[in-house]
Amino acid sequence: MEHLWWDLGSCAGGAVFEVELRGSAARVALMEVDDYQAYLDGDEYVYYGGFYDVSPVVLEVPYDGYWYLVVDSHPRRIKVGVTQLFD
User: Fold this and answer.
1) For the segment 71-80, what is each residue's pLDDT rounded down to a tens digit?
2) Alpha-carbon distance 70 to 40, whole Å?
3) Is the pTM value of this prediction over 0.70?
4) Considering only CA atoms, which of 10, 3, 12, 4 is closest in space to residue 82?
5) pLDDT of 8-26, one tens digit each?
6) 35, 39, 61, 81: which has the fewest C-beta neighbours closer than 10 Å?
7) What distance in Å separates the CA atoms of residue 52 and residue 21, rounded to the nearest whole number?
8) Which residues does the UniProt record annotate as the domain DUF1883 (predicted)?
């Protein structure tokens, strides 16, 4: 499964990330460790985010935990920038 991902590490609830998409619409998702592994395995998983065709995308970490940010799109057709706005 081709996707772009960032290991955000331990984040406090309320941390905010801005994702700049250039070149394609994409699904942008925040996932906890177990959900990211389920995503990789092709199993059911939970994520926070959605499919976006307008940029920038602003996502807030819903609660304290260890998080991954996943951008699911054709990697050769998209450029992505990620910035943490608030801790």
Assistant:
1) 988 656 766 6
2) 11
3) yes
4) 4
5) 999 999 999 999 998 888 9
6) 81
7) 9
8) 6-76
Of 34, 28, 38, 35, the closest CA to residue 5 belongs to 28
Q: List the beta bridge partners of residue 66.
A: 10
31 pairs with which residues across the strands? Answer: 68
Amino acid identity, residue 21? L
CA dist 3 and 75 (Å) reads: 6
CB neighbour class for 24 (10 Å; exposed up to 12, middle 13-18, buried from 19): middle
Paired tokens of 35: 């959900």
